[in-house]
Amino acid sequence: MKKTGSQILLESLKREGVEVIFNFPGGAILPIVDELSRWDLKRILVRHEQAAVHAADGYARASGKVGVSLVTSGPGATNTVTGIATASMDSIPVVILTGQVPTPLIGNDAFQEADIVGIARPCTKNNYLVTDVRDLARIVREAFYIARSGRSGPVLVDLPKDVLTNTTEYRYPEKIHIRGYQPTVEGHIPQIERALRLILTARRPVIYAGGGVVSSGASEELIKLAGTLQIPVTMTLMGLGGFPGTNPLSLGMLGMHGTYRANMAVTECDLLIAIGARFDDRVTGKVDAFSPKSKKIHIDIDPTSISKNVRVDIPIVGDCKRVLAKMIALLQKEEALEEYRRSLGPWHQQMEEWRDAYRLAYQQNRVIKPQYVVEKLYELTKGDAIIATEVGQNQMWTAQFYQFDHPRSLLTSGGLGTMGYGFPAAIGAQVAFPGRTVIDIAGDGSIQMNIQELATVMQYKLPIKVAILNNGYLGMVRQWQELFYERRYTLTHLGEVNPDFVKLAEAYGAVGMRATKPEEVVPVIQEALRTPLPVLMDFVVDPEEGVYPMVPAGEPISQMLLV
Amino acid sequence: MRHTINVLVENEFGVLARVASLFSGRGFNIESLSVAETLDPTISTMTIVTRGDDQILEQITKQLNKLVCVIKVMDLEGKEYVEREMVLVKVAAKAETRADILRITDIFRGKVVDIGPKSYTIEVTGDEDKIKAFLELLKPMGIKEISRTGRVALARG
Q: What is the C-alpha to C-alpha distance for residues A282 and A236, in angstroms, rounded to an integer?
């Protein structure tokens, strides 16, 4: 029996195990939207297409599954670009389905036409314009395969309206072979052996773990490897949760706002083992001065990440989980491990000295400190919540003061740094895990970038909690102005014109709460966590609190400003 | 350092744009580019001539390999290979220069492919040095227009 393009699409999504679509409708995708009414497939109507992609992205980060968003042509498609670029920079598997004008109109500047395949090309892992309904099933299959395999990432499929209504025989390809796409998953054994030999001669080794540990599900292996050898571990922003923050071997995050001991350890180590990380400039600071005394091992599934910014001595291309598992297996044969662990004694002692020399800290006085709010959120959720963040100070304080012990519990735009990401990402996470506590830690600036999604959380009764660290500023930009532009706070002061967030929540039917004094923080959080509805918590915090330590852009990471 | 890279790609629309956008998005320059179908009509060859140090070239080849539409990448630098380019030259032909032009063309094993009242159009094939030398010799005669194919290359053996 012949099927329409819309039916083939939905059938194929089912075959790929898709459970939910984050959608905003429009003319070009009406055939799918109409067909959806006959399908048992959950759809979430967001209020802006950017949020559709962030929600799919948050769903993917929290669950490990591919997130799917469906939007219309033209502005619907162009509105997804920030979401796609966000997912691309952080290697998040998302499939974006965009409507397109009918094929005979393509290129005619038709109403709501945009060359989204062209526009999205640099920020997708791959993308497709479907010109014939007979290609549709294969393309959907390829799109999901490419999105989730190798270094995962976003894939866009552009669907002209006539392709959705044309019919053909439906056959979903069981096997898939793309001759230009064969990611290397297994690490090269001789390289792994060389790496191990290097590790066993190191006296000051450090593991630098990134988002690849989370996306490949390599946490257990990392804990095992680091534990067996007693090697300290520092995480990137994307790697938080990939190694437990409360593990005694954890040094916390490194980089621009990393801990003192993490940055010192990376600077002084004799061996740096990078696992699923990409030597981003926010991590390395001044590249020439980054970890200058060390040999470097780099495990990554993406060969382009290796020796891109920093030359490494032993590259290992492969899936982190498999490479680490292989390393652990090889380690079983080693005999002198006890002796090795003992030999790291002085290095561990050095680690303790650095920890005691400068700990993450703040002074809680008569105004609420934002760090205090994050710390209390951690304590009162027992570290079990899924935390989304916006971008800026709120994001960095979360990274510093919430201890992430589990992978996929932090959703944050690391690479692109997208304000407005956290709230819709929290929607995706709450849809994936209806029973879990999901909190968006926000600033008063960034929450307003996708505040319209309050309507979505109300419509689907998603009990997301938003904690606004309200300092009346675009705080991170203000901090840079304070440090590098002689406190000229141009365009960063929001104070008087911010909305009343409590009333705003109430206008949508959500619950609004406010804390203006330190002693109100805990009761507000407790009350919010008890409330089975969406809650916006407005924490009026110290307006000029800064994030420290801080490495000024372009400086070596050992040169930290420590308050 | 100049490198000639042969890239086998899917013969589909958008592939050229993907490759070009990889170069432009990362600030790599393309010196010359030629694309044509291979014996297998589903595959095209791109010959890309580009410049960069070892690290840049490593990134270029890795990034090319990363594209789903790219099947194979061969950097010919350091290998034995032949490289050819064709140029069409329209050169002013006056009574006193005609014989010289024909003689030079002959020496370079070129061919006159069109004759007008005031000009010859000449076809010459060769490597970069040969084409450069040929154009230098014709310059004094008055070159009106040239069109070059860009380089194509194959590994020897």
A: 9
Closest CA to A160 of A8, A14, A1, A31: A31
Structure tokens at A198: 């290097």
Tally of CB atoms within 10 A around A353: 11
Question: For A183, which residue in chain B has the nearest alpha carbon?
Answer: B66
Integer Rg of chain A from CA: 24
Catalytic annotation, residues of A: 49, 111-112, 161, 476
Which are the contacts of A126, defined by CB distance < 8 A and separation ≥ 6? Answer: A142, A143, A146, A155, A181, B68
Encode A242-262: b = buried (16+ Cβ within 10 Å), e = exposed. bbbbebebbbbbbbbbbbbbb
DSSP H or E stretch at residue A10: helix A5-15
Token pair recorded at residue A563? 């308050």
Cα separation, A121 vs A118, whole angstroms:
5
Residue of B nearest to A121 (CA): B18
**Closest by alpha carbon to A168, among A206, A216, A213, A135?**
A135
Q: Tell me what the mean pLDDT of segment A325-339 comes to.
A: 94
> Is B26 an interface residue toward A (CB < 8 Å)?
no
- Smallest CA–CA distance, residue A117 to chain B, in Å, is 9
Contact map slice: B 38-57 vs A, CB within 8 A: 55
Tell me if residue B15 falls in helix, strand or coil: helix
pTM listed for this prediction: 0.96
Task: Give per-residue pLDDT as tens, A378-396.
Answer: 999 999 999 999 999 999 9
Residues 57-76 of B with CB under 8 A from A: 58-59, 62-63, 65-71
Q: How many CB atoms lie within 10 A of CB A55?
A: 31
Query: Nearest Cβ partner of A121 from B18, B62, B70?
Result: B18
Q: Which residue has the tokens 């991170």?
A: A476
